[in-house]
Every structure is written in C-alpha cells, then in structure tokens.
C-alpha cells in the first residue's frame, strides 16, 4: 500500500513493474500520470479512490489483471488508451461525466457493458473508444439514461456505436 501522503502517481512511476501487487490506492490520490502503471500485467487493483480527478494517457495500458469495475464521479478526464488491452474488464460503470480520449478501452476484449448511469449530457468521447471490444463487434452495449439514448446515438464519436447504445432501464443490474 502506498502512504496516504501520496497525492499523485507520476508519469511512468511503475512502468513495466510486472510483479506489482497493489490492490488499492490511498484516498489521497488525485492524479494518475501518463503510463503510470503501463504493462503492470499482474496489477490486481480493485478500485480507484473517490479523490482521483485525472487518469493519464496509457495509465493502465496492458494491465491484464486489473479488476476495476467503477470509475468514481470525481474523475473529470480519462486519457487516451488509459485502460487499453485490459482483458479482465467485463463491465465498467462511470459514475461521473469525464472526458474520454481516444482508444480509452481499445482492446478490452471482454468488455461487454459500459455504463454511464448519472450523465446529464453527452460527454466528450474520443475516436475509437471501444475498438476491438464486444461493444464494437455488436455483442456488448453502452448504457445511458433513457432520456439521453437518442442524443448519444447522434453524438460526435458516440454515433459509431449507435446500434449498441441502450437505456439504463434495459440494464438488468447496475
């Protein structure tokens, strides 16, 4: 466990540390830098603290043992390829309205549910957010509040996934 005095995980801090076994981050963390945990293939991190505001580009790229299922409402931006090639991710719920950059979940080959239960508007999405996921191949779905389904289907960068966007009322369990 990292000490509670740590507020930022610097760029490339744990880059390629394949035996890193952190299960949680301290509640003091506000920023996770670019490539901070890049290719930490055995990282079993289960949750992000509610204090995190920024997740940098490629922050968790290739962390194939990652078990995060929820992005806290405090997060305002998620950098490009932040969760790319995380094969263990099956469902991710984003509690806030962050900006999502390009390729955020690209290559997450088991990601079948992406849930935005609390959005009040179409959030900014980057190109190819869900390339090589079940969402892009038609067997996974993006869930948004029912009243925003049409807005998301027509939204810039979201319209590529229009046929895979459903209302949260169609979701069995959030």
Describe the sheet with the most strands.
Answer: 5 strands, parallel
Q: Tally of extended strands?
A: 10
Label the structural class. Answer: mainly beta
The count of helical stretches stands at 2
**Reading side by side through the largest sheet, how are the strands ordered?**
1-2-3-5-7
User: What would the average pLDDT be, to the nearest integer?
Assistant: 96
Alpha-carbon distance between the two ends:
29 Å
What fraction of residues sit in β-strands? Answer: 5-15%
Low-confidence segments, ≥5 residues, pLDDT <50? Answer: none
Percentage of residues in helical conformation = under 10%
- The radius of gyration is 15 Å
- SSE sequence, one letter per element: EEEEEEEEHEHE
> What oligomeric assembly is this protein in?
single chain
What global shape is seen?
globular
């Amino acid at each position: 466990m990292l000490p509670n005095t740590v507020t930022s995980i610097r760029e490339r801090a744990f880059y390629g540390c394949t035996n890193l076994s952190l299960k949680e981050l301290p509640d003091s963390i506000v920023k996770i830098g670019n490539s901070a945990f890049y290719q930490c293939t055995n990282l079993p991190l289960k949750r992000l603290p509610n204090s995190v505001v920024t997740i940098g580009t490629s922050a968790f790229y290739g962390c194939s043992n990652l078990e995060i299922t929820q992005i806290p409402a405090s997060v305002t931006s998620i950098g490009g390829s932040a969760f790319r090639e995380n094969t263990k991710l099956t469902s991710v719920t984003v509690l806030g309205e962050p900006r999502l950059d390009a390729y955020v979940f690209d290559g997450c080959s088991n990601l079948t549910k992406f849930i935005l239960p609390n959005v009040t508007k179409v959030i900014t999405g980057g190109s190819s957010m869900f390339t090589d996921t079940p969402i892009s191949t038609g067997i996974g779905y993006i869930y948004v509040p029912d009243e925003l389904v049409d807005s998301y289907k027509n939204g810039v960068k979201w319209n590529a996934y229009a046929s895979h966007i459903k209302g949260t009322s169609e979701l069995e369990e959030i």
